[in-house]
Hints:
Elements: E1 2-7, E2 13-18, H1 34-40, E3 41-43, E4 49-53, H2 56-64
Parallel strand pairs: 1-4
Antiparallel strand pairs: 1-2, 3-4
Amino acid sequence: MAIVYKCRHCGQEIGKLDQQMVDTSMLGLDQLSSEDKRDMISYEANGGITIKSICESCEESLESLPQYHELDYFIQ
């Protein structure tokens, strides 16, 4: 089972954990609200998990161009 972190804006893979067993509380997923879990976590058919986050590049873009917060996706 792999846990893949991808940027919600540009789709870039941020990181990947290849582990057979992972305690989701150690990843902080238990701290998310039900709504955030629905928005951020996808369970794949192969047993993997994809977590939507934000990459450094998109974070910098959002800081310098706050109007991008209105968009679901934007080009870097």
